């Protein structure tokens, strides 16, 4: 649970008429007329009645009990709910939903049968329209709280017409129930594997692949890995579809070099799943949460998966990162292109460039693109992608954005446009300072975390930049994630 929402800024909290502080056994029920004097008197196990005000950054409902924030999963704004306190911290509480006393008109029955146990989605109990409004509100709240903006220039969020079947990649753990091999996800904080057959946010083509491969592993009696005993071979199935090519890249992640009956498995997969164009094996013996290990071998088929996004061509090795929702990625990158406002003359720096997608999106409209990325393999992929797209004016460098950019500026390399797309933690301070030094005419900030975005934006506003607009994009419908692009311009040059 986040501790970001520390201060209670909400004055419309529920008011208890007859505060009652003294004698309070644990597990007591507190209604509107029977309530402890302060939230500090509450303990885990007490039942409270709360009105939900908004959706928090993890998709939970946020309400207030005696001025103290209460986070309750599965609740919606404007609902009145009964909940049992599960944790009391100095600045917030968490509680478990017992009963919805007054339901929101935006509440719906989650379409997914394993919504509660899987943990992959957080907002399926909310209509899609309401999800979009809640995400806009999350962004608004972040800019209010962290940038002090009461009316941030937020554009309407870009949602999906069909907010299902959008994920182009599945990454499923394997387990056994009796004779059957199950492919699924671990329920959060547990070792319980939830079977997510037919997952409604996955592309149906990859569901077919993961389900068929799990079935074949069972039929051929190939041992699946057991997290507890650390015995067995196949740990994870990764299936990725190229939306343009229709090709499917399948990777089996194994804890041992040798897959028993490998030839037969490959033959059966080829027979039953003709769309699969690559069958690869990746070896990961470690007991770490990382999915992929270092060594990948193609057992059959093509080395790489071909994919196209707009005019940009990608050639993806099994481990290469690629955006999970291509349809929305195009909208995101188009917003980046709009903010960059290129004429063909500019030097663009794509900081935190990953596999170079944003830089390559902009390259046809710029004089030169220079990407900076920490992970050398991603830079290799970026260079491959540049070659596949014929982008001769894009170059990619391994390094830390906060080190390389200041170095370039010192050497007299002055970007006209800088795009940053940092991890959730936001930009490092030295990078923000280097931007003040480099003085690009335009800054484009892509972010998956509205809170760090708003904080960094505030710093940039103090460094001679103006905020033009904030464009939220719904990259992951049914989940609490929200991505934003902001466009900034230099006002004092
Ligand atoms: N722009 C990319 C993805 C960005 S994800 C796209 O649209 O696909 C953020 C990237 O920043 C990751 O690839 C991560 O490896 C990289 N990164 C993290 N810290 C960094 C740093 N200090 N300097 C440069 N890159 C960094």
TrEMBL record:
The UniProt similarity line reads: Belongs to the class I-like SAM-binding methyltransferase superfamily. RNA M5U methyltransferase family.
User: Which residues does the Swiss-Prot or TrEMBL record annotate as the active site?
Assistant: 448, 448 (nucleophile)
Q: Name the source's superkingdom.
A: Bacteria
This protein's encoding gene: rlmD
EC id: 2.1.1.190
Residues noted as binding S-adenosyl-L-methionine in the record, renumbered to the chain: 323, 352, 373, 421
Looking at the record, which segments are called Disordered?
A: 1-39
> Which top EC class applies here?
transferase
The segment(s) forming the TRAM domain are 41-99
Extent of Basic and acidic residues compositional bias: 1-23
> What species is given as this protein's source?
Paenibacillus ehimensis
| Entry keywords, A to Z | Methyltransferase, S-adenosyl-L-methionine, Transferase
Q: What is this protein called?
A: 23S rRNA (Uracil(1939)-C(5))-methyltransferase RlmD
Instruction: Cite the source lineage.
Output: Bacteria, Bacillati, Bacillota, Bacilli, Bacillales
Biological process (GO) annotations held by this record are: methylation
A Pfam family annotated for this chain is TRAM
Does the keyword Zinc feature in the UniProt annotation? no
What NCBIfam families has UniProt attached to this entry? rumA
Which GO molecular function terms does the record list? methyltransferase activity
């Amino acid at each position: 649970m986040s501790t970001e929402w520390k201060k209670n800024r909400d004055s419309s909290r529920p008011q208890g008429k007859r505060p009652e502080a003294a004698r309070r056994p644990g597990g007591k029920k507190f209604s509107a007329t029977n309530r402890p004097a302060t939230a500090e008197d509450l303990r885990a196990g007490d039942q409270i009645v709360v009105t939900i005000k908004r959706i928090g950054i993890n998709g939970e409902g946020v309400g207030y009990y005696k001025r103290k924030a209460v986070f309750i999963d599965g609740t919606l704004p404007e609902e009145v709910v009964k909940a049992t306190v599960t944790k009391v911290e100095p600045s917030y509480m968490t509680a478990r939903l017992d009963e919805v006393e007054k339901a929101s008109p935006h509440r719906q029955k989650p379409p997914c049968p394993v919504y509660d146990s899987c943990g992959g989605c957080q907002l399926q109990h909310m209509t899609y329209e309401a999800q979009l409004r809640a995400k806009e509100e999350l962004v608004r709240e972040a800019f209010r709280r962290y940038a002090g903006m009461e009316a941030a220039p937020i554009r309407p969020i870009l949602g999906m017409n069909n907010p299902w079947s959008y994920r182009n990649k599945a990454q499923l753990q394997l387990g056994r129930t009796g004779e059957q091999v199950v492919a699924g996800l671990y329920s959060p904080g547990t070792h319980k594997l939830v079977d997510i057959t037919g997952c409604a946010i996955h592309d149906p083509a990859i569901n077919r692949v993961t389900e068929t491969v799990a079935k074949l592993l069972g039929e051929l009696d190939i041992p699946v890995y057991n997290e507890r005993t650390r015995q067995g071979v196949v740990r994870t199935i990764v299936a990725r579809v190229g939306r343009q090519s229709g090709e499917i890249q399948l990777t089996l992640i194994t804890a041992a070099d040798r897959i028993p009956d490998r030839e037969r498995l490959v033959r059966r997969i080829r027979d039953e799943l003709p769309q699969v164009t690559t069958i690869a094996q990746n070896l990961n013996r470690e007991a770490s949460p990382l999915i992929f290990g270092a060594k990948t071998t193609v057992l059959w088929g093509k080395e790489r998966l071909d994919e196209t996004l707009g005019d940009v061509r990608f050639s993806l090795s099994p481990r290469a990162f690629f955006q999970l929702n291509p349809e929305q990625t195009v909208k995101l990158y188009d917003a980046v292109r709009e903010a960059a406002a290129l004429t063909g003359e500019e030097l663009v720096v794509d900081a935190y460039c990953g596999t170079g997608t944003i830089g390559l999106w902009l390259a046809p409209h710029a004089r030169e693109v220079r990407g900076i990325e920490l992970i050398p393999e991603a830079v290799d992929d970026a260079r491959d992608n540049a070659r596949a797209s014929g982008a001769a004016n894009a170059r990619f460098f391994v390094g830390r954005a906060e080190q390389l950019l200041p170095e370039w500026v010192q050497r007299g390399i002055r970007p006209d446009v800088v795009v940053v797309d940092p991890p959730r933690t936001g930009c490092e301070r030295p990078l923000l300072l280097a931007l003040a030094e480099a003085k690009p005419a335009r800054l484009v900030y892509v972010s998956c975390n509205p809170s760090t975005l708003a904080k960094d934006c505030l710093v940039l506003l103090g460094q001679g930049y103006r905020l033009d607009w904030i464009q939220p994009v719904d990259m992951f419908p049914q989940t609490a994630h929200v991505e934003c692009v902001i466009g900034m311009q230099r006002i004092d040059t």
